[in-house]
Fold:
Amino acid sequence: MTASASPGPFGPTAFQLVLLRRMADFRPDLAEEARRRLGASLAEQREANRRWQAMVRSPRSRGALARYRSVLGPPESTLARTIGDLACQALLWPVPLWPDLRFEVLAAPDGAVWNEWLVRAPGARGPVLETPRDLRPWSATVDEVARAFAPVRPLEGTAPTRWRLAFSAQGRPCVAEFTYGLLQRVAVDGVEVQV
Structure:
């Protein structure tokens, strides 16, 4: 990607820039390094985000599932899932910035999107999570933290792409914050853990 090039099709690289834009609110250092690995300028990232928001808000929008298919192509895999009494499909796409993760979209039988976030790729090994110090930025997903520190209590996120989990670790209250399902930071007794 180059700043002088005219905008081409919105594809996987531009989509990753959109993910990074939201993650930069918490981890600007990691997001900037990842943006450079993609070979994109800050202006290109802003343009990718502008185009994504225009697609999301367009009155001619074909719906979230169709948007993901047009941007990311056919999913790498589609799995049947049951959540409570509800049957749905989990569509998974690779995300080159995070080779061990997949972007997962949970869709209802009618195509409505219920959730969209990063998850561990099937068969990939996740981190060993035993203490809050193990919760390093970008190291774990919502599901992995929820399993490792059960029971957890979901808290309202500060934006639609953000999640928070409250839990106890080593007898101390903790809150983990996620963007697109990827861990961004952890606070113990209200103080952010520095790793």
Remarks:
- The two ends are 32 Å apart (CA to CA).
- Strands lie at 77-83, 86-94, 101-107, 113-120, 153-155, 162-169, 172-179, 182-188, 191-192.
- Confidence is low (pLDDT under 50) at residues 1-7.
- The chain is about 30% helix and 30% strand.
